[in-house]
Amino acid sequence: MRCPYCGNADTQVKDSRPTDDASAIRRRRICPDCGGRFTTFERVQLRELLVVKKSGRKVPFDRDKLARSVMTALRKRDVEPDRVERMISGVVRQLESLGESEVSSDQIGEFVMEGLRLLDDVAFVRFASVYKNFSAADDFRSFLADLSHDGQGPAED
User: Fold this and answer.
1) Residues whose CB falls within 8 Å of the CB of residue 136, separated by 6 or more in sequence, listed in order
2) Residues 77 and 38 in one domain
3) I need a labelling partner for 14 at 20 to 30 A (CA). Which of 4, 63, 105, 151 fits?
4) Are strands 58-60 and 50-52 parallel, antiparallel or unpaired?
5) Of 33, 13, 21, 102, nearest in space to 61 by CA
6) Stated pTM of the model
C-alpha cells in the first residue's frame, strides 16, 4: 500500500482487526520513510460491477462514491457511523447478489433510498430530492403524500 503522505510503496501493517460488522479488515499502517500513519480497509468483492448510467455510459462501481452520497444526505444528522457503514455494506451486498456484472444507477438509487428510509427520515428525503430531481416545493409535498398513502413513509423512531 502506497503511503498517502510521501508516496513510498513499502508501508508496514502495525495492527489488523475486523470491523464491528465483520464485513472488512481495518489495518493501521506506518510508513518507514516518513513515519506517516494511516488506516486502510480490506473488503471482500464478489464481482466487478459496472454502473450503467442513464445516458448509457458504463463506469466501474465506486463504493467510496456511494458512501459520499450517503454521507451528504446524512450531513448534520445524528446517526452512528457504524449504522451508516452497515447500511452501505448492505447496499453493496444487494448489488453483488443480483448476479449481474452490470447494474443500473436507478437500481443503486432504489437500494440507497430503501436503506436511508430505515436509517433516517431527513436523509431519506434529502437523497430522494436529488435522486428524483425535485425542482419545486410541490415535488416534496407530492413525494411525501405518496409515501403516506402507500404506507412506506419515513421510519418512525
Assistant:
1) none
2) no
3) 63
4) antiparallel
5) 102
6) 0.65
Q: Is residue 80 domain-shared with residue 118, that is, in the same domain?
A: yes
**Is 65 in the same domain as 22?**
no
Give the pLDDT confidence score for residue 157 in this predicted structure: 42
Residue 123 contacts residue 116 (beta carbons within 8 Å)? yes
Long-range contact list for 40-46, CB < 8 A, 24+ apart? Answer: 40/1, 43/89, 45/96, 46/96, 46/97
Q: 14 by DSSP, 3-state: which?
A: strand
Which stretches in the chain have pLDDT values below 70? 45-47, 135, 140, 147-157
Q: Is residue 155 part of a domain?
A: no
Taking residue 46's Cβ as centre, other Cβ atoms within 10 Å add up to 11
Residue 24: its pLDDT value, please?
Answer: 77
Same domain, residue pair 104 and 35: no
Q: What is the pLDDT of residues 82-105, one digit of tens each?
A: 899 889 989 998 998 888 899 999
